[in-house]
Amino acid sequence: MYKKLMLFITCILLTYVCCVTVDIGELNAREAKDFQGLDDDIQVLKEEVLELNRDLYILEEELLYPSSTQVAVYVSVDVGDFFDLDSVQVTLNEKVVANYLYTEREVEALLRGGVHQIYIGNLPSGEHELVAYFVGKGPKGRDFKRGANRIIDKGLGAKYLELKITDRTPKHQPDFVVKEWE
Residue 83: what are its φ and ψ, rounded to 5°? Predict the structure, then answer.
């Protein structure tokens, strides 16, 4: 519905703009002044359409992901000496909901303390199983694939989960944890 509305508004604007296109050289001073006023009106109308588009996007987000059923999953990396991240796959209730292949710049941002939102969606109240698979290079440059899982109890309100990659220094191994934010 949102896309149809935006297409309709765009068509109206284009029709309006096409109807007022004239050769400025043929205009007298009064007509040129009227044309300038019309151009100003078109610019104001464009700005209003952009504002409407922004408001419709916000409304769409609120309708698609109401806070009472919303679940968001984030990825973070702490230190990263024993694991070089390549990709993450997230499943909820045995259904793949996200796959993400990280670029070198994104991994560097995560190592500097950044957090990546890998998934946002809706879940009804109750228990759900979240499983995350991490693929990358482990200790000594070997290919490494590990998983982490957690049973989450979704109640009322939004649920925020963090897939955290940390180093276990005593064992020289990476550790993968699913953490719930309060």
Answer: -155, 125
Residue 49 three-state SS: helix
Residue 147 contacts residue 130 (beta carbons within 8 Å): no
Domain 70-181 coded CATH 2.60.40? yes
Question: Rounded to the nearest 5°, which phi and psi values hold at 119?
Answer: -155, 140
Apex CA 72: angle with CA 68 and CA 76, to 5°?
150
Helix (H) or strand (E) holding 105: helix 104-111
**122-168, pLDDT tens digit by residue?**
898 899 999 999 999 988 888 889 999 999 998 888 899 999 998 87
- What is the C-alpha separation between 41 and 168, in angstroms, rounded? 63
Q: Which two tokens stand for residue 66?
A: 């109401």
Domain-wise residue ranges, the chain: 2-64, 70-181
Prediction pTM value: 0.65
How big is the chain by its Cα radius of gyration, in Å? 26
Report the SS3 class of residue 10: helix
